[in-house]
UniProtKB/TrEMBL annotation:
Pfam families: FAD_binding_2. GO terms for biological process: steroid metabolic process. One of its GO terms (molecular function) is 3-oxosteroid 1-dehydrogenase activity. Its cofactor is FAD. PANTHER family: 3-OXOSTEROID 1-DEHYDROGENASE, FUMARATE REDUCTASE. This is 3-oxosteroid 1-dehydrogenase. It catalyses: a 3-oxosteroid + A = a 3-oxo-Delta(1)-steroid + AH2. It comes from Edaphosphingomonas fennica. The lineage of its organism: Bacteria, Pseudomonadati, Pseudomonadota, Alphaproteobacteria, Sphingomonadales. It comes from the Bacteria. InterPro entries: FAD-dep_OxRdtase_2_FAD-bd (IPR003953), FAD-oxidoreductase_2 (IPR050315), FAD/NAD-bd_sf (IPR036188), Succ_DH/fumarate_Rdtase_cat_sf (IPR027477). Belongs to the FAD-dependent oxidoreductase 2 family. 3-oxosteroid dehydrogenase subfamily. The keyword Ribonucleoprotein does not apply. Residues 8-493 form the FAD-dependent oxidoreductase 2 FAD-binding domain. It is an enzyme of class 1 (oxidoreductase).
Length: 513
């Protein structure tokens, strides 16, 4: 085999997990080459809140958290069930705190609790304060020129907004990890270097083929290759082939996430799982036809094609996304569907975090995505449902608001439902009474796909017969998600990506259990 260069570990991708894996390998004394397809580091992680769900970690402990691993395991099992192997679930749960200790041993990396309720508030041992931490903010001075290499936030990328002063959430996570990596002599991070293929010798992955400046290079990886390159959410052909609901226009995953490391894995015999799955959310529709991840719904109701409610509108976004997909599959919901609300927000939809800011009302009206009626009957004809039905739906809902209990969908019944209702968590049962009445169009949005290469508890990629493909590891959205068909709590995507990347690096370094 003719190699262009050699190292110990190749890391594919540069989201949070990939950078954690690269840092762990470099700190273990290994020579690491990290390849990122696009001209910016960070992937979807850079757009994100940067939160990580890691039970019983040091940052939680410092804040006085009294959770136990037994409770966390009971919760996780109750939510995820047997959809993914128990050993892989345990690897995630049992290594989170140690992975965070590793990160916090670096002077660039510090985390604090950001209370965020677990997403299944009625599951046993769910925590109202969550198990969720975030990186500390970073100033422009601290990151310096490295900021030019960091993928900016979605509002900057899509709307051309100015860069925010401070780096917060995912920006801070990627920024801090890049600073930590720049201090490692053994880590070589490369932009605009797309992974194309694995090199296989005697059944083992021994390196990769990457593109660089119009040519191909073969890089030998003596210890192994970690594929942590996101999902295939930006690849319309793969989405269609694997039956992922929704459209590219509703995807808020990063542009480079085309799924090549998953495709190349399938080609060398890797097994895959959960390929129709994504991290879901309702998506507010913008005039350009995109739908974006929307959380913090503090009023209004969603109605289906019959003018009836079909879900708890304040449920955690992935659960709500799954309700949308189910209602569509039942034939009772057509996209776009409508959020109906009254005038108490001055005509603006009651959504706290639409990911990309909502622009001028007239643009939404011109695009046909915002409707208005002096009465509910008028609004009903605007959104194509019968007046009687919409009036009856709103009257029933207002009755629940007056009684303080939603008998149909138990909106407000879990801590997460009340989380965005201000200090102390008021009820999200906000009546719809004050005209004129409004409707905003919604669709389904995804934060990225979560089906991918099947791994064991050491993040080693498996063949269909359960045997390991030596030399190949996967994490994050490149790996079939440990959380299966659920989103147990904020910070699961990045938290699990970081944990399995860390496990992979330790296995390659020979320092893992
Ligand atoms: C607004 C928003 C907020 C969110 N908040 C949170 C949160 O707080 N906590 C949480 O856990 N999750 C959050 N999520 C979800 C989370 O950000 C993603 O699921 C997660 O970051 C995915 O991580 P990843 O490492 O798998 O992929 P990514 O972070 O997307 O990184 C993948 C990288 O791999 C690169 N790549 C792809 N193909 C190749 C190739 N062939 N060669 C080289 N490089 C390649 C891509 O260009 C990309 O840079 C949020 C998402 C959004 C959109």
């Amino acid at each position: 085999m003719a190699w262009d260069e050699e190292c110990d570990v190749v890391v594919i991708g540069s989201g949070g997990g990939a950078l954690v894996g690269a840092l762990a390998a470099a700190k273990a004394g290994l020579k690491v080459i990290l390849v990122e397809a696009t001209d910016r580091f960070g992937g979807t992680t850079a757009y994100s809140g940067g939160g990580m769900w890691l039970p019983c970690n040091a940052a939680l402990r410092r804040a006085g958290d009294d959770d136990t691993m037994e409770d966390a395991r009971e919760y996780y099992r109750a939510v995820v069930g047997d959809r993914t192997p128990r050993a892989v679930q345990d690897a995630f749960l049992d290594n989170g705190a140690a992975m965070l200790d590793f990160l916090e041993s670096d002077p660039h990396l510090e985390f604090a609790v950001y209370p965020w309720p677990d997403y299944y508030g009625k599951a046993p041992k769910a925590r109202a304060g969550g198990r969720h931490i975030m990186p500390l903010n970073l100033t422009p001075e601290e990151i310096g020129a490295l900021r030019d290499q960091l993928r900016p936030t979605l509002p900057v990328e899509r709307l051309g907004e100015p860069l925010p002063e401070e780096l917060v959430g995912g920006q801070a996570l990627i920024g801090r990890l890049l600073l930590a990596l720049k201090a490692q002599a053994g880590a070589d991070l490369r932009l605009s270097t797309p992974f194309r293929d694995y090199v296989v010798e005697d059944g083992a992955v021994t390196g990769v083929v990457v593109g660089k400046d119009g040519a191909e290079r073969r890089i030998r990886a003596r210890k192994g290759v970690l594929a942590a390159a996101g999902g295939f959410e930006r690849n319309g052909e793969m989405r269609a082939r694997f039956g992922v609901p929704g459209e590219l226009s509703g995807c808020v995953g990063a542009p480079g996430n085309m799924g090549r490391p998953i495709e190349a894995g399938i080609a060398i015999g890797a097994d895959v799982d959960l390929m129709g799955e994504a991290w879901w959310s309702p998506g507010i529709l913008h005039p350009d036809g995109t739908a974006t991840f929307s959380l913090g719904l503090t009023g209004g109701i969603f109605v289906d094609a019959n003018g009836e409610r079909f879900a708890n509108e304040s449920a955690a976004y992935d659960r709500l996304g799954r309700d949308i997909i189910a209602a569509e599959a039942e034939g009772r919901l057509k996209r776009p569907f409508w959020m109906v609300y009254d005038d108490s927000t001055g005509g603006e939809p009651p959504v706290i975090f639409p990911t990309v800011p909502v622009g001028k009302a007239e643009d939404y009206v011109a695009a046909g995505y915002r409707k208005r009626g002096a009465t509910l009957a008028e609004l009903a004809s605007e959104i194509g449902v019968t007046a009687d039905r919409l009036e009856a739906t709103v009257a029933r809902y207002n009755g629940f608001c007056d009684a303080g209990r939603d008998e149909d969908f138990d909106r407000g019944g879990e801590p997460y439902d009340r989380f965005f209702m201000g200090e102390g968590g008021g009820s999200p049962l906000v009546p719809i009474r004050r005209g004129p009445f409004h409707a905003q169009a919604f669709s389904i949005s995804d934060l990225g796909t979560k089906g991918g290469l099947k791994t064991d508890a050491k993040a080693r990629v498996l063949r269909a017969d359960g045997s390991v493909i030596p030399g190949l590891y996967a994490a994050g959205n490149t790996m079939a998600a440990v959380s299966g068909q659920t989103y147990p709590g904020g910070g699961n995507p990045i938290g699990s990506c970081a944990v399995f990347s860390w496990i992979a690096a330790r296995d390659m370094a020979g320092t893992g259990a």
